[in-house]
Amino acid sequence: MSAQIRLVEITDANRDAVVAVRVHPAQERFVASVEKSFRDAEDNPDANPWFRAVYDGEEPVGFVMLSWDVTPGPGLVGPYFLWRLLVGAGHQGRGYGTAILREVVALLRAEGVPELLTSCVPGEGSPEPFYRGFGFVPTGETDEDGEVILRLDLRR
Question: Which residues lie closer than 8 Å to 11 by C-beta, 6 or more apart?
Answer without folding.
Answer: none
